[in-house]
């Protein structure tokens, strides 16, 4: 298709004449079949809900097709409406429309659905097994049409993938407001997601899938690198690095696929198990994992050789992670660092697979005998935890990677509880590393996308960001010198490490000052014509955006870790301080009903308006979270918010008074 044809297709939205039925493409990585959970009456309602996107004269043709999709896949995806053009991030100038902000959002939607980026592109799922951009292809088409028509005095309202419509607003309002899965609290159990998603009335947006801000596995690789580096520092005896040390983990999907790349950057031997051959092939072909081994004996030999030679290498084991933990225990292969990043937020629908079954056998059991599948998963979790316990008894440092592994293992009855019966015996990586070292000081996953889609622009932005950080480091207090040094080292190696998958994007852990200064420098470069427009964003896995008691806010100890005020305040505050789009989600990372997270996107176009917005919004977006962490009596956050108040006289935050513990003796 020509560019003109693509633009015309976008502007048409849902076509007036139905396109021909598209054959099921088995070469694409598809979502597993969802379990049949609807009653007959609810199935009828799901079909009526799907048909309302189409004129009544098309209903007779579409009804049997949608009925078959619901029966075969457990969802109505409307495959025939998939566009014929390739979905990927294009130059912002190639998108039709009246508003550059809307075009930037179209670019980001296309990046989320790029075959090189998305986990299950035909099901509109970006990562995590169920992290959806839309529920069906009619929603995609209608959203793109609305964006192509939008002016800078309208706002598109998105209800869990459904574009409710364009509403009058003003130029400083968000162009899009996204909500995903915002259920009444008593309806946030896993089966509620299955039911209401099958009905077509809600979706699981994960974190950056449903908010259009996913940038491929790079989106987490920097945070994973920081985590592995600092986990290595925790186990270092004489200041030595990770050379010759083994990091054992699992998952090569959307976000977990960053682990082997991060291990290489950190300088260790990474062994990462993955049950899905297509996911392994994708990461290996993209250069994110060096070698693939499917035989356990061969794996043991290869790892021992790498240890002896102190190699820096990443190895994908094609199979179940439990087999690796148990084999390494039997063969006395020392595991120095251990974790897991399978999608255990989604344990019953393809996020974690039982040992002893093939992928195909597991998927069949999941769809046809979900109760047995659940039993097998829980038996596997117990074995998994037992094997980890055997290794930690030999000196392995194991940390939960925020994927709900410890939570689901505890629910399965595994031996992972601390002596008090309340806490887990292993820390979350946020509790041990990311919280006290990064989030409390305001450092988190700032990211940007070059809307020109030009690699030369990305190189220039890397250089600009590095210059800004090096200047800031000169005046930075001792408390954050290590963070600054790690981030400068990261950005200097960004091009060499070939992190780009999909859009020309970059992630960089930065605090509020760093984010504002970098964004300001980008905006000036755009004004001068040195680079094209830039989209700013962040992962929701950040200082302020997410309330998640088993991950992002697991180092909050004042009892408020189960509240979600921070995330809600975050997205409200971003929306009136200048964000181009905002989002608030139920679920993401650790599971439906377990977390609320908010996010934003912002277009920099070189204007004074963009300069004003970035300073207002980025300051709030970070300091909201620091203020909350400060109130929880987190030492680093108390330091950081006091420093922020010294730098901004308009900022006034309540500081907690500390209580002498001896009063309670």
From TrEMBL:
Ranges where the Urocanase C-terminal domain occurs: 439-642
Domain Urocanase N-terminal span(s) in chain numbering: 88-213
Functional pathway: Amino-acid degradation; L-histidine degradation into L-glutamate; N-formimidoyl-L-glutamate from L-histidine: step 2/3
Superkingdom, taxonomy of origin: Bacteria
UniProt cross-references to Pfam families, sorted A to Z: Urocanase (PF01175), Urocanase_C (PF17392), Urocanase_N (PF17391)
EC number(s) recorded for this UniProt protein: 4.2.1.49
The protein's required cofactors: NAD(+)
UniProt similarity note: Belongs to the urocanase family.
Function: Catalyzes the conversion of urocanate to 4-imidazolone-5-propionate.
Protein name: Urocanate hydratase
Record lineage: Bacteria, Pseudomonadati, Bacteroidota, Flavobacteriia, Flavobacteriales
């Amino acid at each position: 298709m020509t560019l003109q044809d693509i633009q015309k297709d976008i502007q048409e939205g849902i076509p007036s004449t139905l396109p021909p039925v598209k054959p099921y493409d088995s070469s694409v990585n598809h979502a597993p079949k969802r379990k049949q959970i609807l009653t007959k009456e609810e199935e009828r309602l799901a079909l009526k809900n799907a048909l309302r996107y189409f004129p009544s004269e098309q209903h007779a043709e579409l009804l049997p097709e949608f009925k078959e999709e619901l029966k075969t896949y457990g969802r109505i995806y409307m495959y025939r409406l998939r566009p014929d053009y390739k979905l990927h991030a294009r130059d912002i100038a190639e998108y039709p429309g009246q508003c550059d902000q809307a075009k930037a959002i179209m670019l980001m939607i296309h990046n989320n659905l790029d075959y090189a980026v998305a986990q299950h592109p035909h099901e509109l799922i970006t990562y995590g097994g169920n992290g959806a951009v839309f529920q069906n292809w009619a929603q995609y088409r209608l959203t793109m049409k609305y964006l192509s028509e939008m002016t800078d005095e309208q706002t598109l309202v998105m209800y869990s993938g459904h574009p409710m419509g364009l509403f009058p607003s003003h130029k400083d309002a968000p162009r899009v407001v996204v909500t995903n899965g915002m259920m009444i609290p008593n309806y946030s159990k896993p089966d509620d997601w299955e039911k209401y998603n099958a009905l077509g009335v809600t979706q699981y947006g994960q974190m950056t899938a449903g908010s259009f801000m996913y940038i491929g596995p790079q989106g987490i690789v920097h945070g994973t690198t920081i985590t592995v580096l600092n986990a290595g520092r925790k186990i270092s005896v004489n200041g030595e690095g990770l050379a010759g040390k083994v990091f054992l983990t699992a998952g090569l999907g959307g976000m977990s696929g960053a682990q082997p790349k991060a291990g290489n950057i950190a300088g260790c031997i990474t062994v990462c198990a993955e049950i899905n051959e297509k996911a392994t092939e994708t990461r290996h072909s993209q250069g994110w994992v060096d070698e693939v081994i499917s035989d356990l004996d061969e794996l043991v030999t290869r790892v021992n050789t790498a240890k002896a030679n102190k190699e820096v290498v990443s190895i994908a084991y094609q199979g179940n992670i439990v087999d690796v933990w148990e084999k390494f225990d039997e063969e006395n292969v020392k595991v120095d660092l251990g974790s897991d990043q399978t999608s255990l937020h989604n344990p019953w629908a393809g996020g974690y697979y039982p040992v002893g079954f093939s992928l195909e056998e597991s998927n069949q059991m999941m769809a046809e005998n979900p109760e047995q599948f659940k039993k097998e998963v829980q038996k596997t979790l117990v074995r998994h935890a037992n094997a980890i316990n055997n290794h930690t008894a030999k000196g392995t440092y194991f940390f939960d990677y925020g994927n709900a592994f410890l939570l689901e293992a505890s629910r399965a009855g595994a031996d992972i509880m601390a002596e008090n019966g309340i806490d887990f015996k292993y820390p979350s990586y946020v509790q041990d590393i990311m919280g006290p070292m990064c989030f409390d000081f305001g450092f988190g996953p700032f990211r940007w996308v070059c809307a020109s889609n030009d690699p030369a622009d990305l190189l220039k932005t890397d250089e600009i960001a590095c210059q800004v950080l090096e200047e800031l480091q000169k005046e930075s207090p001792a408390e954050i010198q290590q963070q600054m040094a790690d981030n400068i080292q990261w950005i200097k190696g960004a091009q060499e490490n070939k992190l780009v998958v999909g859009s020309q994007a970059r992630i960089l852990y930065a605090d509020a000052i760093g984010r504002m200064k970098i964004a300001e420098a980008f905006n000036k470069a755009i004004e001068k014509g040195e680079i094209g427009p830039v989209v700013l964003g962040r992962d929701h896995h950040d200082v302020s955006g997410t309330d998640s008691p088993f991950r992002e806010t697991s180092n909050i100890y004042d009892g408020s870790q189960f509240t979600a005020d921070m995330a809600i305040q975050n997205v409200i505050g971003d929306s009136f301080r200048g964000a181009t789009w905002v989002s608030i989600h139920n679920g993401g990372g650790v599971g439906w009903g377990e977390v609320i997270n908010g996010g934003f996107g912002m277009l920099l176009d070189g204007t004074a308006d963009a300069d004003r917005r970035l300073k207002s919004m980025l300051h709030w977006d970070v300091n909201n979270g620091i203020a909350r962490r400060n109130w929880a009596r987190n030492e680093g956050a108390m330091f950081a918010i006091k420093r922020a108040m010294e730098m901004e006289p308009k900022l006034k935050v309540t500081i907690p008074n500390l209580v002498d513990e001896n009063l309670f003796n």
